[in-house]
């Protein structure tokens, strides 16, 4: 009964995370005249404060072994690049398009895991990668009048995110850095990096803009801690599939608040990527069950 309760709590927090990240991206699109640096600053300064408070409550020290800094630094660099590209991309393409292309990072991680962790890359993994790229092509529509440079940036952002996730995984496998520290130093570095640009650009925002910028920080925190708590309650193999709910939530938010209507090819792309994600979730789960026997 206890395991079932933790499983449902894991699902709840994954869904909260999806709502948080989708809402964050929607607000970013609602602020086209605000610099990416300002959006990055407000996203991370609130997360930094909340994480620091949680660290103090849990008695987590800020100290990190010297051997762990190279991986943590790489996670910070790729993470900042990924967020900047994501925010910049949202200026040019639909919210749902951006969200779905970001999900490509989970498939790219398969390739990185093969090279860096010596994990098996099967024919099924290869076919999943091929179909996911077909889904992306349907969304991007290269050569059509609706093609935008923003789609290329979105794919680049997915690679940066996959690199950041790979670094996080490597840090996790070494088990020398508390997950809260990983979040804290990424958020702190992002805040420090973006602050000078915020000062140069000025902070004279009207009330609506200021509230939306604070909203970026709040929803970013919901997304960040939602996913963190989710995987504390349940394993990735049990609940990772529910992360694809973000595509649906982004589609709804884009339609209701931004009047965005994806074309039929983009919708086909969403469906392909979601179905491939669900299939890979079941495939990897079955492999783990067989390996445990």
TrEMBL record:
Transmembrane segments: 7-28, 40-57, 69-95, 101-117, 124-143, 149-168, 180-199, 211-234, 241-259, 265-283
Domain of life of the source: Bacteria
Protein name, entry field: DMT family transporter
Matches recorded under InterPro entries: EamA_dom, EmrE-like
Boundaries of every EamA domain copy: 9-140, 149-280
Keyword annotations of the record: Membrane, Transmembrane, Transmembrane helix
Cellular component terms per the entry's GO annotation: membrane
Localization of this protein: Membrane
PANTHER family the UniProt entry points to: ACYL-MALONYL CONDENSING ENZYME-RELATED, SOLUTE CARRIER FAMILY 35 MEMBER G1
Membrane topology of this protein: Multi-pass membrane protein
